[in-house]
């Protein structure tokens, strides 16, 4: 058979299929087309690990794997969402099921191609030739993406859309994603609205919701996403983005419902299983949390998408359930993570704290209460550090509330809870996370709620003073309370006020410097919740890795 194109000799391919005969046939067909490096894998889990580490030019992947939690479509979706699949990679899904529903499913998976097995060598060559033509046609766009100029690449993609040049639909989606990354949500929204005037597109509806989120318009984003879910009931991205929006609104129960829908639609998605387990944990749904977290650990403990917070939360659940053997296995995994980090020359405060929590829980199981108390005190003493984040607060509170009442002074415990509530009560979402760490202790739950309310009162008082023309007094109040509570919301407000009303504030440069120093010491405002959301991950987005 004739070579596919001149560049094919330099290309690498991987064939993923549970059937050994099908793998061998496809690999032979690829070699006939000129590929010299063709790898074969039988398990989709192994394929995910490989594609997380290495880039391939062509991926041929079966859609269905008997007995596996992840399908070929799940693999494609997750790799694209997590920016682990280069835009130039040709990903073709294969299936023996040629039904209309399966064809539609493959199209919605954003695959580069779709083939029904068994396929002839000529059919495979034709499909790959078309995919590679498209990749070459869009090469300037991919190059612009790799250049790091999101706005410039967005403008290039939008020009292709406006001219209705070949592959303009893909270009429109890329342009919307790039405008969002460039901090121009209004351009992204306008483009999505223009696309919807042409034809219904689920990604464009999600793009409008993401533009609202980028502007902090949570209510508008929620309404848009609820409409998306109503129209696209089977769109897992819509459910997940709705869940994340509800988390930001502090509405954890409906967020869990939405995440259940997302993970049920894509049972092989590692991050969704972890996020569902974390939400269930914070809501006290311990059986569901343990089940989801166990499955996530079994699915992808060595994956780059695995979150150590899953080990943290499951260790707490196994400790509470008195499952000593399960807890010991988790403790070994946490120790291995910490050791690997140390061997690599790392110094992750996050892994260290998780390791300290697990060791302290082990001390409690061995009835070494004094050792556990000392570990809890050491964690609480770190609260002044800039790297002490919401997850660190969860770790600290989770350990303190598990100390035996006879081993800890009630006043000391209350002081720790109050201090963390004041520092991290920056939003309803953060407060709900702290509440979930307290294992339903009523007297402590009230302290956290009161801490959040106190921060709200200070913020309202400062805003009121500024609106009445007393910016100097408002700034002094925010700085004083920011230094007392170390609350990132109050500190950020003080910086904003100092910059906006510099002409009304005495010694504005010195006060601004004071606020900046405070922010550097206490950390930036919270941008994600422990075990629930990752800032880099955007459901409904397009993978733009070069």
Structure description:
Strand 4, helix 4 (100-108) and strand 5 form a beta-alpha-beta unit. It is globular and about 75 Å long. Among the domains are: 6-137, 3-Layer(aba) Sandwich (Rossmann fold); 443-522. It is mostly helical and 546 residues long. It is built from 26 helices and 5 strands. It has helices at 20-32, 44-53, 72-81, 100-108, 121-137, 139-146, 150-163, 168-181, 185-198, 202-214, 218-231, 236-248, 252-265, 270-282, 286-300, 308-320, 324-343, 349-365, 369-381, 390-400, 410-424, 428-436, 442-467, 471-485, 488-500, 508-522; strands at 12-16, 37-41, 58-62, 90-95, 113-116. The chain has a 5-stranded parallel β-sheet with strand order 2-1-3-4-5, sandwiched between helices. 66% of the residues lie in helices and 5% in strands. Helix 8 runs antiparallel to helix 9 (185-198), helix 20 (390-400) packs antiparallel against helix 21 and helix 22 packs antiparallel against helix 23 (442-467).
Q: What keywords describe this structure?
A:
single chain; Rossmann fold; mainly alpha; 546 residues; 5-stranded parallel sheet
């Amino acid at each position: 058979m004739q070579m596919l194109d001149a560049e094919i000799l330099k290309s690498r391919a991987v064939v993923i299929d549970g059937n050994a005969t099908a793998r061998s046939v496809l690999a032979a067909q690829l070699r006939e087309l000129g590929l010299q490096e063709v790898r074969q894998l039988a398990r989709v889990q192994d394929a995910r690990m490989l594609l997380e580490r290495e880039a391939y030019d062509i991926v041929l992947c079966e859609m269905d794997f008997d007995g596996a939690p992840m399908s070929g479509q799940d693999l494609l979706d997750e790799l694209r969402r997590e920016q682990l699949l280069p835009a130039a990679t040709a990903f073709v899904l294969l299936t023996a099921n040629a039904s209309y529903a399966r064809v539609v499913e493959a199209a919605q998976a954003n695959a580069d191609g779709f083939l029904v097995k068994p396929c002839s060598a000529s059919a495979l060559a034709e499909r790959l030739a078309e995919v590679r033509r498209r990749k070459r046609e869009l090469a300037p766009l991919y190059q612009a993406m790799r250049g790091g100029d999101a706005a410039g690449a967005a403008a290039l993609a939008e020009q292709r859309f406006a001219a209705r040049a070949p592959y303009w639909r893909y270009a429109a989606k890329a342009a919307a994603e790039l405008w969002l990354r460039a901090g121009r949500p209004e351009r992204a929204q306008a483009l999505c609205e223009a696309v919807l005037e042409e034809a219904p597109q689920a990604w464009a509806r999600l793009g409008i919701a993401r533009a609202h989120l980028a502007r902090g318009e949570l209510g508008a984003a929620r309404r848009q996403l609820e409409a998306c879910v109503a129209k696209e009931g089977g769109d897992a991205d819509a459910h997940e983005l709705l869940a994340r929006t509800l988390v930001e609104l502090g509405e954890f129960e409906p967020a869990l419902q939405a995440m259940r829908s997302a993970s049920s639609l894509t049972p092989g998605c590692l991050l969704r299983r972890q996020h569902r387990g974390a939400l269930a944990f914070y809501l006290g749904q311990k059986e569901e949390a343990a089940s989801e977290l166990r499955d996530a650990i079994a699915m992808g403990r060595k994956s780059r998408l695995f979150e150590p917070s899953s080990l943290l939360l499951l260790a707490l659940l196994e400790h509470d359930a008195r499952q000593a053997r399960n807890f010991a296995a988790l403790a070994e995994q946490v120790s291995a993570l910490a050791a690997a980090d140390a061997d690599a020359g790392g110094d992750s405060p996050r892994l260290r704290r998780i390791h300290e929590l697990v060791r302290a829980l082990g001390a409690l199981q061995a009835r070494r209460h004094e050792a556990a108390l000392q570990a809890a005190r050491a964690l609480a003493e770190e609260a002044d550090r800039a790297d002490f984040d919401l997850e660190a607060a969860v770790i600290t509170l989770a350990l303190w509330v598990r100390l035996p009442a006879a081993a800890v002074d009630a006043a000391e415990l209350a002081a720790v809870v109050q201090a963390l509530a004041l520092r991290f009560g920056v939003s309803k979402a953060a407060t709900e996370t702290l509440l979930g760490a307290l294992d339903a202790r009523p007297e402590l739950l009230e302290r956290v709620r009161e801490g959040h309310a106190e921060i709200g009162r200070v913020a309202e008082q400062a805003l009121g003073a500024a609106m009445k023309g007393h910016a100097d007094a408002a700034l002094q109040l925010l700085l004083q309370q920011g230094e007392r509570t170390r609350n990132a919301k109050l500190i950020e407000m003080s910086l904003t006020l100092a910059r906006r009303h510099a002409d009304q504030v005495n010694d504005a440069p010195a006060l601004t410097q004071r606020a900046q120093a405070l922010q550097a010491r206490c950390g930036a405002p919270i941008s994600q919740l422990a075990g629930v959301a990752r800032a880099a991950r955007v459901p409904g987005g397009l993978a733009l890795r070069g």
